[in-house]
């Protein structure tokens, strides 16, 4: 057996061990929607296959789908873009991977929201760059931290809004500040927006792209909004020269996203408005039920996403230990350390499960915490 490359030896995938480690437990770990893909979206894929759409297609993605995405971003979020600014990718993850390969050189750094989505840092390392953690216990802290930490090696700053795992939503004035910093210092502000439709209490998503695509990349996904996590489809929106480079990468890496998956995505954008609204309402109800039933955990109320990220520090243990012990009692959450060094004292729960399971989970958590006192 030959040696595994140095590059891959420094990549961490230990999080996979947290997914389903205690059988028979209520699993609130993985960040997946609580619903099957809507039937009409599946049907669009079947129909496309029946019609023979099963061969290679454009590496940039179906022009009709790109048009729909650019129209949506213009209409909903005021982003000036056209289909030439869009690349269809393998999930949001595929877009972030392609992006990093295109802009990060060895020795460059990427500023990473911390706590934040756990793949940003590993994808940076795979591109030869150094991830730099930016404390983000709230949105203001992240934006100020980026201003402080950006240096001549910084190629990008990446964050999600609403944010995984904290549920924080970034407002327009903070995003403008971040956009200004990126343009003054010449790095990319990468806005990862897979929860753009999962916002609560009447809130509306703001995309940093509304201030212009200069030094800005928007990443989005069909995984969460349309319950299509296993279909592997997402997209990037950016200035055309950057999109052209990413398309070149995707051409040699995987050729194209399957055409029938892209047809299903068109159906989702065009005809799932009611489903999107309905699921959002259900997630909001589940959030309120779950948080309302928990008696002893403190965390800010998520403004979006389907995650709750309370601190467990006052129980005299970190998130790793808390989640290990809780798992043995029957509920699986994700230890906050997986989201970065600033998450070590927290635990993430996904509240997409049906209400009766969330109730049982909250009761188990209450009992567990009461036993600690
Ligand atoms: N970005 C964030 C913030 C996420 O939470 C996730 C998935 O959990 C992704 C990206 C990846 O999503 P996709 O399934 O589109 O690759």
Task: Please tell me about this protein's structure.
The chain contains 12 helices and 12 strands. The chain has helices at residues 6-9, 39-50, 63-77, 91-103, 119-126, 139-149, 172-185, 240-253, 259-271, 273-293, 319-329, 355-372, and strands at residues 26-27, 86-89, 109-114, 130-135, 154-160, 188-192, 216-221, 234-237, 307-308, 331-332, 334-335, 347-350. The strands form 3 sheets. Strands 2-8-7-6-5-3-4 form a 7-stranded mixed beta sheet, sandwiched between helices. The chain has a 3-stranded antiparallel beta sheet with strand order 9-12-11, covered by helices on one side. Helix 4 (91-103) crosses helix 8 (240-253), helix 6 packs parallel to helix 7 and helix 10 (273-293) packs parallel to helix 12 (355-372). The longest helix is centred in the C-terminal third of the chain and has 21 residues, at 273-293. The N and C termini lie far apart (52 Å). The model has no long low-confidence stretch (mean pLDDT 96). The protein binds pyridoxal-5'-phosphate. The site of pyridoxal-5'-phosphate has 13 residues, from helix 4.
């Amino acid at each position: 057996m030959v040696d595994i490359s140095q590059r891959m030896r420094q990549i961490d995938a230990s999080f996979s061990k947290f997914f389903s480690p205690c059988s028979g437990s209520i699993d609130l770990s993985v960040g997946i929607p609580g619903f099957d893909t809507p039937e009409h979206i599946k049907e669009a894929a079947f129909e496309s296959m029946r019609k023979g759409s099963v061969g290679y297609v454009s590496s940039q993605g179906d022009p009709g789908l790109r048009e729909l995405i650019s129209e949506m971003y213009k209409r909903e979020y005021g982003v000036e873009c056209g289909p030439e600014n869009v690349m269809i990718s393998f999930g949001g993850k595929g877009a972030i991977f392609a992006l990093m390969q295109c802009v990060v050189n060895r020795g460059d750094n990427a500023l990473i929201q911390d706590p934040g989505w756990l793949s940003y840092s590993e994808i940076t390392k795979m591109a030869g760059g150094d991830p730099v953690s930016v404390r983000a216990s709230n949105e203001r802290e992240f934006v100020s931290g980026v201003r402080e930490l950006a240096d001549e090696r910084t190629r990008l700053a990446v964050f999600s809004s609403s944010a995984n795992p904290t549920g924080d939503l970034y407002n327009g004035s903070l995003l403008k500040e971040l956009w200004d910093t990126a343009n003054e210092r010449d790095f990319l502000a990468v806005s990862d927006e897979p929860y753009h439709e999962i916002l609560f209490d009447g809130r509306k998503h703001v995309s940093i792209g509304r201030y212009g695509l200069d030094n800005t990349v928007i990443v989005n996904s069909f995984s969460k909004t349309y319950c299509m996590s296993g279909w592997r489809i997402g997209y990037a929106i950016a200035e055309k020269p950057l999109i052209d480079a990413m398309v070149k990468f995707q051409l040699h890496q995987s050729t194209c996203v399957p055409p029938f998956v892209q047809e299903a995505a068109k159906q989702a954008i065009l005809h799932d408005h009611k489903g999107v609204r309905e699921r959002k309402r259900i997630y909001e109800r589940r959030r309120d039920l779950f948080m309302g039933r928990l008696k002893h955990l403190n965390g800010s109320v998520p403004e979006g996403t389907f995650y709750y990220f309370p601190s467990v520090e006052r129980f005299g243990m970190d998130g790793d230990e808390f989640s290990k012990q809780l798992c043995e009692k029957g509920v699986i959450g994700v230890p906050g350390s997986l989201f970065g060094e600033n998450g070590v004292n927290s635990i993430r729960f996904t509240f997409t499960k049906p209400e009766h399971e969330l109730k049982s989970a909250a009761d188990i958590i209450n009992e567990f915490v009461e036993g600690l006192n």
